[in-house]
Amino acid sequence: MKEKIIEKSINLFAVQGFKETTIQQIVEELGVTKGTFYYYFQSKEEVLVDIQMTYIERLLAAQQEIFHQKETTCKDKIFELMVRIVSEIRTEGLKAKVFIREMRHVNEVQLKSIKRKRNEFRNNLIQVLEEAMRKREIQSHIPAEMIAFGILGMTNWTYFWYDPDGERTEEEIVSYFHQIIMNGIEKMEE
Asked: Per-residue pLDDT tens for 128-161?
């Protein structure tokens, strides 16, 4: 039942917004009582924190798996991470939407834990970018932190516009993003 409460909450939070969704709406959608809800969660905010932590922990685990591949270049690791973020948005679209959009409704104490994990994710990416710079796989004149923010901004915000059934495939989108990051958009001399 706990997973059903989470899934229904994700749907309602994504469509209506966190503030606009009530516990009563969640339990009505599930056909259960408020007592059932309160058996698993103390508040609607606790559900939101669970969604936030589960999402970022899943991404961190995937990132670690990608970044610990010994025989893979840093450039390829960056590409694989971008693929993973966009594919998560395809497979977990509503959860991604709630993760990105509704964080502002988490209380300060819980927000610190979520931000710590988000920062860990970003810092891991920065480390791989710095390693790529040391190995001369990528240019080093732009700070790795700025490149990381660019990558995360491009990939995370696809939740807002990406349509898995649309004109562009996930692979195309990531390929374009990767080309923009790795090559820039300045016209090359012919």
From this structure: 999 999 999 998 899 999 999 999 999 988 888 8
Total of domains in the chain? 2
Give 41's contacts (C-beta < 8 A, 6+ positions apart): 2, 5, 47, 50
Cβ neighbours for 150, distance < 8 A, ≥ 6 positions apart? 181
Total length of the chain: 190
The domain containing residue 167 runs over which residues? 43-183
Please write the tens of the pLDDT for every residue from 47-72.
999 999 999 999 999 999 999 998 99
Nearest residue to 54 (alpha-carbon basis) of 6, 90, 21: 6
Residue 92 corresponds to which amino acid?
E
% the chain with pLDDT above 90? 68
Shared domain for 47 and 11, answered yes or no, is: no
Q: Residues 35, 1: one domain?
A: yes
Are 16 and 96 part of one and the same domain? Answer: no
